[in-house]
Fold this protein.
Amino acid sequence: MLRKAGRLFTIKTRWEAWLVIYAIALGAVERGRHYLEIYPGWGGWLLAIACTGVVFLAGAKLLDSVRAEAPALSAGPYSPTVRRRAPIGRSRPTLRRNRPFSEPRISRRTD
């Protein structure tokens, strides 16, 4: 029975994550207001900013933990661009690894 109740509180989609982030933000702003009333001056402002900063950290963690949904159809009449890799040797040098049991490149040079 507890397992069934626990499934109700599982965040499955990004929409649910955004709703939870909104609720956290409302609570953080309210708490920040209380800090400004209790601690006037710089101390209250610093605590209020810390409360709202936590929303960014928690929101990023929530959004990262929720699996990204499959993208919808492209928005325009054109197909999305496909990024292709550049041919080897033209755009940037590649690291060539030594074969096992071979000499290093430096020792193969002859002057």
Q: What stands out?
A: The mean pLDDT is 77.
